[in-house]
Amino acid sequence: MNGPFAFTLALGDDALIAAQRLAEWTTRAPEMEEDIALANIALDQLGAARLLLSYAGELEGAGRDEDALAYLREDREFRNCLLVELPNGDFAVTMAKLLVLSAYQLPLYTALAGCPDERLAAIGAKARKESAYHLDHATLWVKRLGDGTEESHRRMQSGIDQVWPYAHELFAARPDTPVDPATLRAEFDAAVGAVLAEATIAVPDSGWAPAGGRDGVHTEHLSYLLAEMQVLHRAHPGAHW
Amino acid sequence: MSERGERTDRLGAEGPAPLWEVFVRARRGLAHTHVGSLHAPDAELALHNARDLYTRRQEGVSIWVVPASAITASSPDEKDAFFDPAADKVYRHPTFYEVPEGAAHL
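ok -> structure tokens follow
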């Protein structure tokens, strides 16, 4: 895989898998208002995924469009981070995942908006506003649950504990790409650290840092997610609304 | 864990979150108009929910949320006393008056 293609594909896969996971909350969120908020965020991620995967297909030059990349690849061909494929867990786990993901995507898309590649810059400029809102939404809930009741605090701390090890993979150095994720770590730590401090949530100090998503080595959860996401397209190739 | 903020105390309370009335200004120069209501545990989340529920198709440029409990409404029982007396007072409308001759710029 060439560099620009692999980079764009990884970002597109992050957004696509995050969208599919968040969409699982539809009709199951704690309250109707939150149901719609989560569906909105899922659709934002899907919108970014479509732009990124379409562009990735052009960069590859093998004639694959967004649908071919989304629906006709096997799990080992996906390049998303492990964080987004993890099961939703309870609402606190989902908010912990959204906090980490959006605090990573916001500086990433912001940096992308200033990169020399015009297409990536345009996608970054559009997506960063959405990421800023996702971060805002996750921040609201993490603060309320963390600094809430005994039970909500316990669940929020547990959610952060479960999700935190998967944050390290996001910032693995890739110096040959338009934006090296390693350069975003300080901004991420500052933003998330401030939220967790206000939420009275302790930052886990586990050294465990699972990785492999960028090389196509995933958890088993991705395979089940893909089966559900791809089944219609594989049964009826080219199906559309 | 005993120092949890008061802000979120209601999250742990039983029953649904408080009701908020939502007002949206469609564009600059127009007044905020009542568009509906929603449930939220506090004002900040009410504003976020309102954004997602009522402005996702570019319906507005500004949102107000007001606790429904803060609104004092007229009662249907008082409808006659409140509104009927205005019915026969046609002189309150400018069209009741004839413009005098020669008063071109009234």
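The two ends of chain A are 32 Å apart (CA to CA).
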